[in-house]
Every structure is written in structure tokens, then in C-alpha cells.
Design a protein that fits this description.
alpha+beta, single chain, 26% strand, six-stranded antiparallel β-barrel, Elongation Factor Tu (Ef-tu), domain 3, four-stranded antiparallel beta sheet
Length: 265
């Protein structure tokens, strides 16, 4: 938020010097408690959250403004783990109290804390991208499976022209795919280059995220691969910087829960 504030201040000082306004950042006034998993709603209900937030009443990827303990809260039903999830935003001085209330019910629900590593594994199993890790400045929505969302937008928007340029329509663009090692055991190295021949050679793509999947009992990876959407089932070679190469197969995403049932609890 500091960069956003700096941009506003620059506009006020350099572009809109006649405006008599002050910009006050409020992001730091809000705390966040995220609850995720099959019993996420049951856990929130135990501490008094409104039934209007239940999965049957609140759609995935929607936000509601409501109250908890007479305090204003903003609840986003979103998931980065692939399971039912809620991000509860509330005044920062109340965040610790909410966490303590939730934690008092943790044992009866079998709840635990989970960290970034667990979250990263689960999001790769689900094929969720991490912006800046699985993408770069050249990535377009269609490269990562978001083409349908763009096609549904009838009204003009900033960037539409860029999506119609020849480079954007090139079938050989780097596109998001899943990879699994053919031996079912070798972890594919992040940054490993995908090419049919050992280097020096032209690269067809690279591994962006890689983890051992506890659910599948094998390594899995995300990669950006030229023409990847048309190469499902193809065998490729991932070259390590130490000179070794690993045989892998291109797979469809997600690796787990392809129906998306888990995100609804």
C-alpha cells in the first residue's frame, strides 16, 4: 500500500496541485485471519459468524461486509489451497481476539496451523499459480487457463488490444502445464529447462514450481511450456544446471480434485 500512497501523493503534488485533499492509507488498520479446510465454515460458525456466510449461501470468490461481535468485518470466500476457505478481515486490534476464540475450538475440530510450505504444496496440487513465480511480465490470461474469463467480457477494457496482437495469438506461446517425472520419484528442479536435447540448445520452457505431493505420493511440478495446452501426454526432458536431465510427462491440471468439489466444503 505504500507504493499506492506514493502514487497518489505524486499526482497531488505534480498533476492535480489545485486539489485540497489528503490521502490516508487504511490498509494497516485491518488484520486478516484465514480459515481453510473442509470444516472451515463449521469453525467460523462456532465463534458466532453470520449464517449468511455459509457455503450454501455465499458463493466462492465473493465478498460480504458483515459484523462479528459488533465489529465491522469483510469476509472473502476464497481459496489458495484448493479447499473451502474464508479470509476474514477485521480491525487489526481485534484480530488476536478472533484467533484466540477460533483456537479454543481447534482441538474438537482437529484443526492445526499450516504454513507457507504446506500452502505451496496444496496450491501446486490444485494447479493454482503464484504470480511472479509461475508467471512473468509476458504472461497473458490465456497462457494460464483464464481465456474464458476474457472471452466473456463484451465491453472494452484496458489491454484488450494487446490480446489481439500476433504475439498474443502465437500457438507457440509459453503456457502453464503440469509435469510429473516418468520414474515417479525424482523431484523436478525449479528453473530446470525443458528441451529435447542437452544444452547448448533452444529451450522450450522451464519448471516454475515443484513439490513432493503427500496426497499423490510422488513429485509434481508446474511449468511454462511452448504450446503447452496442446502437448498433454507428451514426454519431455528437464535439464538440470548440473548437467543431468530428467524424463517427465506433460499432464493436465489440476493434479487433485479436478471437479473442484473441495472448494465448496
Amino acid at each position: 500500500f505504500e507504493r499506492t500512497l506514493a502514487s497518489f501523493e505524486e499526482w497531488l503534488q505534480c498533476e492535480f496541485v489545485d486539489l485540497k485533499v489528503a490521502v490516508t492509507p487504511v490498509t494497516s488498520r485491518w488484520g486478516n485471519v484465514t480459515v481453510a479446510g473442509p470444516l472451515a465454515w463449521e469453525w467460523l460458525a462456532k465463534v458466532g459468524f453470520d449464517a449468511a456466510l455459509a457455503p450454501g449461501a455465499m458463493a466462492h470468490m465473493t465478498m460480504r461486509e458483515t459484523q462479528w461481535e459488533s465489529a465491522p468485518v469483510r469476509v472473502l470466500r476464497a481459496s489458495f489451497s484448493g479447499e473451502l476457505g474464508y479470509e476474514v478481515n477485521l480491525p487489526v486490534d481485534l484480530a488476536e481476539g478472533l484467533f484466540e476464540r477460533l483456537w479454543s475450538h481447534a482441538e474438537e475440530l482437529g484443526a492445526v496451523l499450516y504454513g507457507i510450505e504446506a500452502l505451496e504444496v496444496m496450491r501446486v496440487e490444485k494447479g493454482y499459480i503464484h504470480i511472479g513465480t509461475d508467471t512473468d511480465g509476458t504472461t497473458l490470461p490465456g497462457d494460464v487457463g483464464f481465456a474464458r474469463g476474457i472471452e466473456r467480457k463484451a465491453a472494452p477494457f484496458v489491454g484488450r488490444r494487446s490480446l489481439l496482437r500476433p504475439a498474443a495469438l502465437d500457438p507457440g506461446r509459453l503456457q502453464l502445464v503440469g509435469l510429473v517425472p516418468l520414474d515417479g520419484q525424482t523431484l523436478l528442479p525449479v528453473g530446470g529447462q525443458i528441451a529435447p536435447n542437452p544444452p547448448p540448445t533452444l529451450s522450450e520452457g522451464h519448471v516454475t514450481s515443484s513439490h513432493l505431493s503427500p496426497e499423490l505420493g510422488m513429485p509434481i511440478a508446474l511449468a511454462m511450456l511452448k504450446g503447452g495446452s496442446q502437448r498433454t501426454g507428451e514426454e519431455v526432458r528437464v535439464h538440470h544446471h548440473l548437467g543431468t536431465s530428467i524424463a517427465a510427462r506433460v499432464t493436465q491440471l489440476p493434479f487433485v480434485d479436478p471437479s473442484g468439489a473441495r472448494v465448496h466444503g
